[in-house]
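OP here, attaching both records as promised.
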Amino acid sequence: MTSLCVIWTLEAKYTDHRGHNTDSLEQVVAGWTPEKEASATLEESKGLIWAYYELMHAYRPVNGRRSQYFARKLTRLSRRWNWLNMEATGDEGEGLIYYGEGQYDSALVCFNRALDVVDRMAAGEVSGTSGEVYDESSIYDDYSSLYGAIGNLYNMMDSIDTAMRYYAKAGEIFDRFGWNESNSILYYNIGETWMDEGDLRKALPAYEKALLYAGAAGDSLLMANATKGLGRLYMEKGRTIKALEYLREAEAYYISHSDEEHVFRVENLEFMSHVLNQQTRTRTYVALGLACLVLLLVAVQVLFRRNKILSLRQMGSDEAINVAAANLNSNAGADFDLTERDRQILALIAQGLTSAQIADKIYLSLPTIKWYRKRLLVKFDVGNTAEMISKAKEQGLI
C-alpha cells in the first residue's frame, strides 16, 4: 500500500517532464505487471496512469524507446477505465516518437487513433474515472495539439497544403479560447514553412500575425522570434535596412537572455552577418559604379577635346576598361561568398549527411538547415546537390 501512496502523489510532484528522478519513479511502477494492473482498483490505476504519463514525457527527449513503452502502458490502462483524455495523450505520445524517427505512416496512425478518442469525448462520452463528461476546454486542447502534430507531420512529408489545413484548425481553436501564445508559435512556424518553400508573399502575413499574438500575450521571447522571422524575410527580399532593424530588435532580447536562448541568438547573428555583408557588397558595387561613371565622363570629355588620333587611342583605352570590368565580373562569379556556416554545412552535405542529420550534428533546427541548402544552391548557381558538390570540388572548396 505504501507504493500506491507514492504513486498517487506523483500527480503533483512530476510535472516538468525533464527527466528528474526518472529512476526512482520507474522503480515505483516496476512491480506492476500486466496481471497486477488488471486487478488494480480505480485509485491504484489513477496513480499508475499519472506515473506512466510522467515517465512518457520524461524519457521523450533522451530515450524514445522507453518513452514509447510507457506511452503504450498509459494508453492501455487508460482505455480500461475509459479515461479518454489520457488514452488520447498516450496515443499522441507514441505518435510523436514515430514522428521523431521519421516513421510518418506509423505516426499518422497513432494521431488519427487519438483523434477518434477525442471525438468520443466531444460526443459527450462520460469519463470512467470521474463519471462526468469532459469539459470543452480539455477537449479542444487535445484537438489543437493533435491538429498541430498532424500539420507538422504533413509539413515534413512536403504536403504543405494539407499541413496548412490542419494548422488552420488549430488556429481556430486558439482564437476561440484566446490562447495567444499558442497562436504566436503556430504562425511563426507557418512563416518558417513558407520561407522554406520560397513563398515570401505568404510568409509575411504569418510572421506579422505571430508578432501580433506575441504582443497580445505579452511574451517577449515570442516577440523576438517573430521579429527574427521578419528580419530573415526582408533579408531574402534584399531590403537590408528593414531586415537589420528587425534583427537588431530580436538581438536586444536574445543578448539579455543569452544563457537561455543560445540557439536562437546564433541563428539571429548569422542573419545579421549576412545582411551586413549584403550591405557591404552593395556599397562596393555602388562605389565601383560611380567610379566607372566618372571614368566614362572623363573619357567622353577627352573624345570631344582631342583630335581624331587621340580619339582612336581613347577608344582603345575604353576597350581596355571594358575588358577589365568583364574580368572583375568574372572573378566575382568565382567567389561564392561562403560564410563559415556555409562551408561547414557544405562539407557535411558532401559527406552524404541528410538535413536532419546535419541539424542534429551542429545543433540547428531542420528548417534552418533546409534554408542553408537552398541558399548554397543559389550561390553555386546549380539545380541540385550533385552539381553543387561537383562545382565545389572544382573550386577546391571541399
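Record two, same layout:
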Amino acid sequence: MPFDILRLHFDSPFSSLLGDYSRTLSNWGAHFPGAQIFVEFMEEIEECPVEFLNRVSTFFGIDPGSALGWPHARTRVNAQSTVQMPAEVLRFLSRKYYFGLRDLEENPLLDNSEYVKAWRRGAERHLS
C-alpha cells in the first residue's frame, strides 16, 4: 500500500482516536475504579497464553486452575507470517505515537508495563 494512503489512514480522526490509549484509559477510568478495569497486552497472549488466561480468569472470578485444562490455550489461531514494516512507516508511526507512549508509561492502570517501555524504546530507535 502506498505510504501516502497509510499516512491518511493513520492521521484520520477515527484511527487517531483508536490509537490514543491514554485517552481511552482515562475515559474508562472516569467511570470505573481501577480495580474494575482489566488491561493486558497482545504480546502476553503470544508469549504466555496460559498465564494470561489465569489472570483473565482471576479478574472475572473464575477458578484460574481451569485455564490449565483448556486444550487450545497454546494453539495459535489465525497465525500469519510476519512482514517487515517499511522504515518510512516505522518512523511515521513512531513520531505520531511517541508522546502518547510516554504518557502510557505513567498510567497507573498499566502497572509500569515492560511492554509499553519496549514500545517507547522501539519508537526512539526508529526516530534516531
